[in-house]
Amino acid sequence: LRTQLQATQGRLTIRTILQEQRHRPMRDWMRGYVPTLLRDVPFSAAYWFMYEEAKRQITVPETIACNSGLRTLLHSFVCGGFAGTLA
């Protein structure tokens, strides 16, 4: 649906697209699903593995963030950045 909205020139509403899609077979709705999974699943698996490993190995010292909530936020941010960069 998003692709159709982006590709259409002029004024088009989601309601119009949904009305058109209602008459199409289900396989048309699923077009592109397999390539999307083939792209996203390996990335997500690598990201998750690296994030969990980074959580175990990286620590944020109290000298950088004395508040425990800020330390948790910073830890999550650093681990997510590390995992996302490598994945």
Report on the structure:
Helix 4 (33-57) crosses helix 5. The model has no long low-confidence stretch (mean pLDDT 86). With 87 residues, the protein is mostly helical. The longest helix has 25 residues, at 33-57. It is 71% helix and 0% strand. It is elongated and about 60 Å long. The two termini are 28 Å apart.
Strand tally: 0
Structural class given helices, strands, pairing?
mainly alpha
Distance between the termini: 28 Å
User: For the CA atoms, what is the radius of gyration?
Assistant: 21 Å
Amount of helix = over 70%
Count of DSSP H/I helices: 5
What is the arithmetic mean of pLDDT?
86
Poorly predicted runs are: none
Beta-strand residue fraction = under 5%
Helix and strand sequence:
HHHHH
Main sheet record: none
| Principal-axis shape | elongated
Topology of this protein?
Layout: H1 2-7, H2 14-21, H3 26-29, H4 33-57, H5 68-86
Helix pairs in contact: 4-5
Features of this protein?
87 residues; single chain; elongated
In short:
The protein has 87 residues and is mainly alpha-helical.
